[in-house]
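Pilot study result, target chain (350 residues):
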Amino acid sequence: MYPAFTIHSLPVHKTEIAPSTTQPTGHQMSISSMHQVPDTRLWIGGMFALRGKEALKEAGITHVVSVLRQPLDATLYEGYQHHIIEVDDVEDENIIEHFAGANEFIEKALEGGGAVLIHCAMGKSRSTTILAQYLMQSQSLTPSEAVALIKSQRSLVEPNEGFMKQLELYHAMKYETDIDNHPMYQRWLYQCELEAAKAAGVAPERVHFRDAERRVAEIAGEAEETTEGGEKKHTECELRCKKCRRTLATSAFLTPHIPKSAQPPQSRGPAQPCSHHFLEPLSWMRPELEQQKLEGKLECPKCQSKVGSYAWQGIKCSCGEWIVPAISLARGRVDEVKIRATQGLKGSVL
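Predicted structure:
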């Protein structure tokens, strides 16, 4: 899933512990429970590492980043600059919104000659994610490279799948510090809201209209062709109201799915196309979709003829595939017109 990354001759940073026949002391145990990123003053560990004050002093720790939500014992952090990120280790947790604040704290610590311990409960998922994203933007690493670098010193590290996707999103956004208005972040938030609404069986509180957002080409994701002169071009299809010819959507806004065969196994005839074009919310649908109804009909904004329907809980396509959420134009109510647009998306479908 993630690109391979080979680490060559990485120095191993470990503290030797003298053999003993007695039970290990708190200092010895905490040394083994935190690990240093090679050639940095960055350490990673779990909660237990905080109890070894001598080990923390030996490592030169001056700043601590706590990445967990549980109540914290304030006495553990006495004498350190402390930054708290309250998140749970669950896949749908929004951890990317904390990256900028964490980076500012870490950078100030390192610029001042300090050393930073980043910890969660186990030093496995949450702390790894925060450390990895800092390494990504400071050393120009991919998510898999950053995690591999940490894993070379602490073998148990493993961000959960949701956190890994957010590291990939952060990388795709080129380590943007102001993410709130970034179209890729807004797109990700919208998908999270759809999943939450789907689980609750309700319509989403906010509808994301793709054609109305800024810099939509950054997240369109459609395939690109190139002319002989190197100019980018797109082969698209416009969907137009069969009655008044008003353009309702282009292929850039369609939601592709892999159709199941709509024909019985014994049929020798060609498979019929799906009876619906599924697409993303567009601005001309705003008056209907913002009513927060679970399902309803879509009318052409020009001639008011019925052209489709929507169901946030999903519908079963004629091919047998279940589509969630389902915002669709009926194939029999629109005409498909092939066009070719150059340099970006053609036209608005507002």
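One observation from the pilot: Residues 1-31, 214-233, 342-348 have pLDDT under 50 and may be disordered. A full batch analysis is planned for the follow-on phase.
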